[in-house]
From TrEMBL:
Involved in the glycolate utilization. Catalyzes the condensation and subsequent hydrolysis of acetyl-coenzyme A (acetyl-CoA) and glyoxylate to form malate and CoA. Its cofactor is Mg(2+). Residues 158-190 form the Malate synthase G alpha-beta insertion domain. Keywords: Acyltransferase, Cytoplasm, Glyoxylate bypass, Magnesium, Metal-binding, Oxidation, Transferase, Tricarboxylic acid cycle. The keyword Cytoplasm applies. Residues 316-546 form the Malate synthase TIM barrel domain. It is found in: Cytoplasm. Mg(2+) binds at E411, D439. Residues 295-307 have a biased composition (Basic and acidic residues). It catalyses: glyoxylate + acetyl-CoA + H2O = (S)-malate + CoA + H(+). Residues 568-650 form the Malate synthase C-terminal domain. The modification Cysteine sulfenic acid (-SOH) is found at C594. This is Malate synthase G.
């Protein structure tokens, strides 16, 4: 049992209490007794409301389950189904015309369009890499990935042939983005050659070269005749550096395994290090120790001699957890665990107050805002609760109203079906809506679990509800004035090694009107930035048409009349089981919440809890409706355990699954499937947290 401290009736882990008192409140000049008294009062008032919202989720689910059971085997009449959902309060009336009122939003969110990173907050090195991904080398991104259509680099030092192909592609980008009045960038022979067709694209001189601007994003052309690349280039261009990850989400939620005070303290400490600007991480590379820290700003001088700077770092959001989970880091007076979302809001909000007060080395928001992404909310009442929670934290920290901005993840069915009302509930602090295919699919399966067997997982992408979901998210956001004030986002490209394919497909997110989209790495951010030079998203948004109605969104992806062969069932179970085990074994045994996990075809995919939710719910659904048997599921789990062991053979910390069915990780994987129907909203967190705590206890 960890050392505990009483704080105004809250039973707090002592290390966490010390961190808050000394490192968070101390620099703010906030008296700890006053803070903890206010925190205790806030928790006492809001915890029952939080619990009531979760009870409503369960009550709605029970009524939907009963409705489907009563009609099992009959086709769903959409008019009847919609009337039922309205009658039980699952569907609410849409609000009338309104425009969001959010103020003091940084340009990276409001008026610029570009890539967004999501990074596990527990890994300081990854967090620093992401924060520093505001600027990325196009030459490095092209040289080291399959985004360049040229022979791969030969091993053993710099490959000049590959380098020449990179340079040619770079010149092509410059010709397309910063066209010269005459001729090509390939023809210039010095840093002062060539006049731009549009002189307004020129910004000034940096320490290393020239700075330009296109579609609101900056481009630095670096000249260095002494560098390996510059000395072979007739214009001495050594690199093209792109403004890339405009924003980054430091994630306390799906991409981390944080189950207790020890884990939460790492996350909160790293967030404080980002806000203060002094986060550092040392690591071994190539036999020597390297230390990573936050980049400074990029300085430039205009032709008139005026000196300016551009941010050297991504604008940072922090993603709190949703309303479901509790955490033992703080116990309430009745001995129960505090709702983790309440704890996250108070502590990340208090840390953010240091930025608002200008206490950091660099500063995050130049507009005095704290940016918090709130996931997994079900409908407008839960959004309104978040609004009230943020009000209370602002009052506790003496922050102006609506300092704490909210990003709403549109990833639950009740939220996407009532999106206008959800936006309305947070209309004066909303800065972001984003779709999440995997979580949304998990909720699609769970909400309609009793309706019948679902289509195969791969077919979900061609289901009727999905395009309606994506189009409604953009259309409803635009209808309520998010363009120019907030981000309308799209989900993750999951394959960090398949950058060539990403460059073909991900421009579709801009065509759909999204002014940001998630990428899995700083390199991917640099490459995806090319898309935002190709398309002016804000112009695209102006030309978008009608918003699909709710009927398509509510069309359940049932596999009506399908009779799969035994081989097809086995193939689907294997696919789900392999992904499930590959992710769970790292989460439970090593506390890794997000990593590149090989899929059944050995393609590395970025996996987090959302991928696990869909796999486990899909298997639970097929089991419930007799598409497969318990024996078939266990057969798949056993065979895929051997495959996952093989895929992790090079990891010295890996604990094999095969022959270890009594082990904690295998038990967790089994429960996720066999107890999947009864999990709240199909979430994986309750079981994962339980088994991780068992593992940590030894």
């Amino acid at each position: 049992m960890s050392d505990r401290t009483d704080k105004s009736g809250l039973d707090v882990d002592s290390a966490l209490a010390r961190f808050v008192d000394e490192q968070v409140l101390g620099p703010l000049g906030v008296e700890p007794q006053m803070f903890w008294t206010g925190f205790a009062a806030l928790a006492a008032e809001l915890t029952p409301k939080n619990r009531a919202l979760l009870e409503k989720r369960d009550e709605l689910q029970a009524r939907i389950d009963a409705w489907h059971k009563d009609r099992r085997g009959k086709p769903i009449d959409m008019a009847e189904y919609k009337a039922f959902l309205q009658d039980i309060g699952y569907l609410v009336p849409e609000p009338g015309d309104f425009t969001i009122g959010t103020q003091n939003v940084d340009p990276e969110i409001a008026t610029m369009a570009g890539p967004q990173l999501v990074v596990p907050i527990l890994n300081a090195r990854f967090l620093l890499n992401a924060a520093n991904a505001r600027w990325g080398s196009l030459y490095d991104a092209l040289y080291g990935t399959d985004a360049l259509d040229a022979p791969a680099a030969r091993p053993g030092g710099y490959d000049e042939e590959r380098g020449a192909a990179v340079i040619a592609r770079g010149r092509q980008f410059l010709d397309e983005t910063l066209p010269l009045a005459s001729g090509s960038w390939a023809d210039i022979e010095g840093s002062h050659d060539g006049k731009l067709k549009d002189e307004s694209q020129y910004v000034g001189k940096t320490e290393r070269g020239l700075l330009f601007k296109s579609n609101g994003l900056h481009i630095e052309v670096v000249f260095d005749p002494g560098s390996q690349v510059g000395k072979t280039d007739k214009a001495s261009i050594a690199d093209i550096v792109l403004e890339a990850a405009l924003t980054t989400i430091a994630d306390l939620e799906d991409s981390v395994a944080a189950v207790d005070a020890e884990d939460k303290l790492v996350g909160y400490s790293n967030w404080l290090g980002i806000i203060r600007g002094d986060l550092e991480e040392s690591f071994e590379k190539g036999g020597s120790t390297m230390t990573r820290s936050l980049n400074g700003d990029k300085r430039y001088t205009t032709d008139e001699g005026d000196e300016h700077s551009l941010p050297g770092r991504s604008l940072m959001f922090v993603r709190n957890v949703g309303h479901l989970m509790t955490n033992p880091a703080i116990l309430l007076p009745d001995g129960s665990e505090i709702p983790e979302g309440i704890m996250d809001a108070v502590i990340t909000g208090a840390i953010g107050a240091q930025d608002v007060r200008g206490l950091g080395k660099y500063g995050n928001s130049r507009c005095g805002s704290i940016y918090i992404v709130k996931p997994k909310m079900h409908g407008p009442e839960e959004c309104a609760f978040t609004n009230e929670l943020f009000d209370r934290v602002e009052d506790l920290m003496d922050l102006p109203r609506h300092t704490m901005k909210v990003g709403v993840m549109d990833e639950e069915r009740r939220t996407s079906a009532n999106l206008g009302a959800c936006i309305h509930a947070v209309k004066d602090r909303i800065v972001f809506i984003n779709t999440g295919f995997l979580d949304r699919t998990g909720d699609e399966i769970h909400t309609s679990m009793q309706a019948g067997p679902m289509v195969r997982k791969a077919q979900m992408k061609s289901s009727e509800w999905l395009p309606a979901y994506e189009k409604r998210n953009v259309g409803i956001g635009l209808r309520h004035g998010l363009s120019g004030r907030a981000q309308i986002g799209k989900g993750m490209w999951p394959a960090p090694d398949l950058m060539g394919q990403m460059m073909i497909e991900k421009i579709g997110h801009l065509d759909a009107g999204a002014n940001t989209a998630w990428v899995p790495s700083p390199t991917a951010a640099t490459l995806h930035a090319l898309h935002y030079h190709q398309k002016d998203v804000f112009a695209v948004q102006k030309g978008l048409g009608e918003v699909p109605g709710v009927d398509a969104l509510l069309t359940i992806p049932l596999a009506d009349g399908v009779n799969w062969s035994e081989e097809e069932v086995r193939e689907e179970l294997d696919n789900n089981a392999q992904g499930l085990l590959g992710y769970v074994v790292r989460w439970i045994d090593q506390g890794v919440g997000c990593s590149k996990v090989p899929d059944i075809n050995d393609v590395g995919l970025m996996e987090d809890r959302a991928t696990l939710r869909i796999s486990s719910q899909h298997m639970a659904n097929w089991l419930l409706h007799g598409i497969c048997t318990e024996e078939q599921v266990m057969d798949s789990l056993r065979r895929m355990a051997a495959k996952v062991d093989e895929q992790n053979a090079g990891d010295p910390f890996y604990e094999p699954l095969s022959g270890n069915e009594d082990g904690v990780a295998f038990k967790a994987a089994k429960d996720l499937v066999f107890k999947g129907v009864e999990q709240p909203s199909g979430y994986t967190e309750p079981l994962l947290h339980h088994y991780r705590q068992v593992k940590k206890a030894g």
